[in-house]
Write a structure and sequence with these properties.
mainly beta; 3 helices; globular
Length: about 350
């Protein structure tokens, strides 16, 4: 039995007796003695906790790769296979290289900031709403006026001025000249020429030219279809408001408003005026009714004034209208910011045809 047991366990060739080759062998297999349990391995000393490794630097992503490479790190080595019989060997287990931990996923890159949308354009400045006036065009006339000028240094001058206009159905022409007498000659200080249309709002200038002594001729253009005022003397452009005037037509426009309804003069009169380089809204205020002395006698007048306007014009303009003379302007005074004063007072009114 013992021999048969070893033959079975050691795979030795079995003994077969001679004869017919058949033999009966009875054997009882007993379980082997259990092997003693290996002693418990000694506890491994705990290693001090290492500080967390610094995050690796991420290299730029190559175009042909799907994952970024990690700079300064070696590729992880595959762990050697462990035989089943060495599972209980503590030293062998400790010597087995551990697989490198998978690197932590790189934090997502911040999304690039969206381009800032361009700021909304500021809202366009609202155009001033000017009053609409009832007008009655004054009949064509030729008015001559005496000129008295006092310079800022006190020097006095005298001369003559002309205000004349013609009406031709739906168009008009205005001429203004103002000069002084020097010895035996007359020197024009300013010459204005205005031409345009006659509209329901009164005079509607289209072009005005201005020539001052010692300066070049300038032109102001009123583009009614394009609603703008332009100038030959500057690049400025202004919106063209209903009832806009030029410097030559302003006194006659006030006359047309007074003829339309004198009660309109009791409140401020706002008129947009295009000059030689810019435009602004003239605000005329009623000073009151006054009597003035002229070569035509003492006249009852309505005195209007346009005081200086900070940031716009610095001079003061005063106009006197005579109701008994068709509300024509019979005195015009300009007080400059320097202190110089020029006063024009009527000495003759010549009507082209009858009318009041």
């Amino acid at each position: 039995m013992v021999l048969g047991l070893f033959e079975t366990r050691l795979d030795l060739p079995r003994h077969v007796p001679a004869g017919d080759g058949r033999a009966t062998l009875l054997a009882q297999l007993l379980p082997p003695d259990p092997a003693p349990a290996p002693p418990d391995p000694a506890p491994l000393p705990l290693a001090p906790a290492a500080p967390p490794p610094a995050l690796p630097e991420i290299a730029p992503l190559p175009a042909e790769l799907g994952e970024p490479a990690i700079l300064g790190s070696a590729p992880p080595q595959a762990a050697e296979p462990v035989e089943a019989g060495a599972a209980g060997d503590a030293e062998t287990v400790a010597a087995i290289p551990q697989a490198a931990p998978e690197p932590a996923p790189a934090p997502p890159l911040p999304a690039p900031p969206l381009p800032a949308s361009p700021p909304a354009p500021p809202p366009a400045a609202a155009l001033p709403e000017l009053r609409r006036y009832t007008v009655d065009m004054p009949p064509p006339a030729r008015i001559t006026l005496d000129v008295a000028r006092t310079d800022a240094d006190g020097t006095e001058w005298s001369g003559e001025a002309l205000l004349a206009w013609q009406l031709n159905q739906d168009t008009y022409r205005i001429q203004v000249e103002a000069g002084i007498r020097v010895v035996f000659t007359r020197v024009n200080l300013v010459v204005l020429n205005s031409e345009g249309a006659v509209a329901v709002t009164g005079f509607a200038p289209i072009r005005m030219t201005e020539k001052r002594r010692g300066r070049s001729l300038t032109a102001t253009h009123f583009d009614w279809s394009g609603n703008r005022i332009t100038f030959s003397g500057s690049q400025a452009t202004y919106p063209l408001l209903p009832g806009a005037q030029d410097k030559a037509s302003v006194p006659l426009q006030l006359s047309a408003i007074a003829r339309g309804d004198p009660r309109q003069l009791t409140s401020d009169i706002d008129i947009m005026v295009g000059e030689d380089r810019d435009a602004s809204v003239y605000r005329f205020q009623l000073v009151g009714q006054e009597q003035i002395d002229t070569k035509l006698g003492r006249l009852q007048t309505w005195h209007l004034t346009r005081p200086p306007k900070p940031g716009s014009y610095k001079s003061r303009l005063d106009i006197w209208l005579a109701p008994q003379h068709g509300w024509y302007p019979v005195r015009i005074r300009n007080t400059e910011s320097s202190g110089a004063v020029t006063t024009q007072t009527v000495n003759n009114i010549e009507l082209s045809h009858s009318g009041t």
